[in-house]
Amino acid sequence: MILMLFGPPGVGKGTQANRLTQYYRCEKFSMGDILREEVAIQSESGKKAESHMIQGVLVPDTLIFEIVDSFLIENKANGILFDGFPRNLNQAINLNTSLSRLNLRLNLALEMDLDEREISARLLNRRYCPVCNRLYNLVSNPPRKDEVCDQCKKPLIKREDDTETVIQKRMQVYQEETAPLTKYYKSLNCYQKVPAIGSEDDVFNNIVQVINAHNLKK
Ligand SMILES: [Zn+2]
C-alpha cells in the first residue's frame, strides 16, 4: 500500500506518521530525513543535494525525483507512507508518473483536518525548555510546575514564531499550497479527510479506521 499523509502545521502530523509507520510496518518517506541521510552517507544524490543546500537554494525537483524513484524501487514491497510529500501540485503529478512507471499507485492521500482556531490554540500553548529543548503544551502536556521544566527547573519559553499573526500566515500559506493538491487527489479518487480533533490516540484510531476500511494489501 502507498499512502500520503498531510496536514496543516501544528496538527501533529509527524507523530502520527511515525506511529502509522510502526503500526503497518511500512517505510516512511520524509524528504527532510532522507536528504539528511543521503548527505550523511555522501551518496551521489546526497553530494548533489548538499551543493544546493550549502548555497541555500531549493533542491531541484529533478534531483528530488531521482531520490524518490530509487526509494520506490527499494521499498515498494514493504508499503510506503509519504510524510508531507508531495508539497505541491507539480510534485504530485511527478510522483504519479514515477508510481505509474513501476505499476504502482497512490492508494490514499489522507489530510488531517483540524479547525483553524483549535490549531492556533494548540500552537499558542506550546512551550519549550531552553536548556534541554523538551516540548510542552500548557493544555495537553503541561509541566508539573507552572511553566517550569520538569527536568531542568528552568522557566519555559514560547517559540518566537508561535504568535497569532505568524500562525495565521502559516495557515494561509498551507491552504494556498495544498488546495490544488486536494483537488488533484479528489480527481484521482484517493483523497480522504480525517478528523484530527481529540487525543493523539483518538486521531491515530481515526486514521487507522480510514485506512483499514480500504482493505489495502501490503
Ligand atoms: Zn529542560
TrEMBL record:
<feature type="binding site">
    <location>
        <begin position="10"/>
        <end position="15"/>
    </location>
    <ligand>
        <name>ATP</name>
    </ligand>
</feature>
<feature type="region of interest" description="LID">
    <location>
        <begin position="125"/>
        <end position="162"/>
    </location>
</feature>
<dbReference type="GO" id="GO:0005737">
    <property type="term" value="C:cytoplasm"/>
</dbReference>
<feature type="binding site">
    <location>
        <position position="132"/>
    </location>
    <ligand>
        <name>Zn(2+)</name>
    </ligand>
</feature>
<keyword id="KW-0479">Metal-binding</keyword>
<dbReference type="InterPro" id="IPR006259">
    <property type="entry name" value="Adenyl_kin_sub"/>
</dbReference>
<keyword id="KW-0862">Zinc</keyword>
<dbReference type="InterPro" id="IPR000850">
    <property type="entry name" value="Adenylat/UMP-CMP_kin"/>
</dbReference>
<dbReference type="GO" id="GO:0004017">
    <property type="term" value="F:AMP kinase activity"/>
</dbReference>
<keyword id="KW-0963">Cytoplasm</keyword>
<feature type="binding site">
    <location>
        <position position="198"/>
    </location>
    <ligand>
        <name>ATP</name>
    </ligand>
</feature>
<feature type="binding site">
    <location>
        <position position="91"/>
    </location>
    <ligand>
        <name>AMP</name>
    </ligand>
</feature>
<comment type="pathway">
    <text>Purine metabolism; AMP biosynthesis via salvage pathway; AMP from ADP: step 1/1.</text>
</comment>
<feature type="binding site">
    <location>
        <position position="126"/>
    </location>
    <ligand>
        <name>ATP</name>
    </ligand>
</feature>
<feature type="domain" description="Adenylate kinase active site lid">
    <location>
        <begin position="126"/>
        <end position="161"/>
    </location>
</feature>
<dbReference type="Pfam" id="PF00406">
    <property type="entry name" value="ADK"/>
</dbReference>
<dbReference type="Pfam" id="PF05191">
    <property type="entry name" value="ADK_lid"/>
</dbReference>
<dbReference type="InterPro" id="IPR027417">
    <property type="entry name" value="P-loop_NTPase"/>
</dbReference>
<comment type="similarity">
    <text>Belongs to the adenylate kinase family.</text>
</comment>
<feature type="binding site">
    <location>
        <position position="129"/>
    </location>
    <ligand>
        <name>Zn(2+)</name>
    </ligand>
</feature>
<dbReference type="GO" id="GO:0005524">
    <property type="term" value="F:ATP binding"/>
</dbReference>
<feature type="binding site">
    <location>
        <position position="36"/>
    </location>
    <ligand>
        <name>AMP</name>
    </ligand>
</feature>
<dbReference type="GO" id="GO:0008270">
    <property type="term" value="F:zinc ion binding"/>
</dbReference>
<keyword id="KW-0545">Nucleotide biosynthesis</keyword>
<feature type="region of interest" description="NMP">
    <location>
        <begin position="30"/>
        <end position="59"/>
    </location>
</feature>
<feature type="binding site">
    <location>
        <position position="152"/>
    </location>
    <ligand>
        <name>Zn(2+)</name>
    </ligand>
</feature>
<feature type="binding site">
    <location>
        <position position="149"/>
    </location>
    <ligand>
        <name>Zn(2+)</name>
    </ligand>
</feature>
<feature type="binding site">
    <location>
        <begin position="84"/>
        <end position="87"/>
    </location>
    <ligand>
        <name>AMP</name>
    </ligand>
</feature>
<dbReference type="InterPro" id="IPR007862">
    <property type="entry name" value="Adenylate_kinase_lid-dom"/>
</dbReference>
<feature type="binding site">
    <location>
        <begin position="57"/>
        <end position="59"/>
    </location>
    <ligand>
        <name>AMP</name>
    </ligand>
</feature>
<keyword id="KW-0418">Kinase</keyword>
<keyword id="KW-0067">ATP-binding</keyword>
<dbReference type="InterPro" id="IPR033690">
    <property type="entry name" value="Adenylat_kinase_CS"/>
</dbReference>
<feature type="binding site">
    <location>
        <position position="170"/>
    </location>
    <ligand>
        <name>AMP</name>
    </ligand>
</feature>
<protein>
    <recommendedName>
        <fullName>Adenylate kinase</fullName>
        <ecNumber>2.7.4.3</ecNumber>
    </recommendedName>
</protein>
<dbReference type="GO" id="GO:0044209">
    <property type="term" value="P:AMP salvage"/>
</dbReference>
<comment type="subunit">
    <text>Monomer.</text>
</comment>
<keyword id="KW-0808">Transferase</keyword>
<keyword id="KW-0547">Nucleotide-binding</keyword>
<feature type="binding site">
    <location>
        <position position="159"/>
    </location>
    <ligand>
        <name>AMP</name>
    </ligand>
</feature>
<comment type="function">
    <text>Catalyzes the reversible transfer of the terminal phosphate group between ATP and AMP. Plays an important role in cellular energy homeostasis and in adenine nucleotide metabolism.</text>
</comment>
